[in-house]
Structures are given as C-alpha cells and as structure tokens.
Amino acid sequence: xxxxxxxxxxxxxxxxxxxxYNIETVGIRQGYEGLIQSxxxxxxxxxxxxxxxxxxxxxxxxxxxxxxxxxGRKKAFENIQKNNIDALIVIGGDGSFTGAKIFFEEYxxxxxxxxxxxxxxxxxxxxTIGYDTALNTVVESIDKLRDTATSHDxxxxxxxMGRDAGFIALNSxxxxx
Length: 177
Description:
Elements: H1 7-20, E1 25-28, H2 31-37, E2 40-43, H3 70-82, E3 88-92, H4 94-107, E4 111-115, H5 131-151, H6 167-175
Helix pairs in contact: 2-3, 5-6
C-alpha cells in the first residue's frame, strides 16, 4: 500500500519489542511484493536506529498485483516457509489488511495489523498512523492559502486525499473554518 508518516516509528517499535522478547525480526521490502520475491532483511536494534525522524518507510512500499492472485499468494507462502517466518505484522490500510485476511484464510498465517493510512478508514481505530499528520498538513496549507486568497479577493478550491473516505476533507474543513 501507500506510506504514511509514522510508519518508521512503528517499524522501530516492532523491532525493539521483538528484540526485548528474543524474537527474530525480518523486514520485508515492498510489502507483499517483497514477500513474493523473498526480499527479506533481518532486523535488529541497530537496523532501526535513526529512522524515527525519516518520512515514508525504510521498507519501501508497493502495491502487488501478483499477491491478488492465488498463485502469487502461494509463492509468498512458500517463501514464508523457506525463511521460517511464524507470523506477519502488517502496517497498512484497507488493501493491506484485506490481503492479510485472505492470506490467513488460505494458509493460516497469523498476522497483527497496525493501522497505517492517511485516509483514517480502518474500522475499530480512532486515528490511524499518518492521519493526524495529513490532517495538520492540510490545515496548515489552507491557512497559508487563505492569506493569498484574501489578499487577491479570490476563492481557492482545495482537493485532499482520502480515496473513498472523507475524513481528511471533513475534519480539515472544520479545523480551518
């Protein structure tokens, strides 16, 4: 899926928690695509130092058309078995969680979902990783645009992200008056 501010902090927290409990952590680059391609990196505490202040995600991100097929998921499962992976921690949004659910149903691979999407469209959580930053960025931008619009007697239209959810549009509209 897409990246959201705070994903590196989540990765760091997972690695540090696993280290504390003596659980080996493997990072999968490019999400499900990396699982299919076996693009894995063993992570330890030093692997995640100084990433908390970086945007995006050090693991990169990609939408995987191949993972949407049963053949692609079979390749991913074979790589999980080959690399002795017991469970997945998925940091993502609706698409990432849907893929994890299907994967669990087909291969019984347990997963933990960490909601990370600026859209804030994951049921059961108040705020997803990235939503607050996206909302504040929009409000800050609208505040700056308002000065220019007022100075020039103009009206500006602002389009924001959100895919099928309107949380950014609604709440930035309320927050910016």
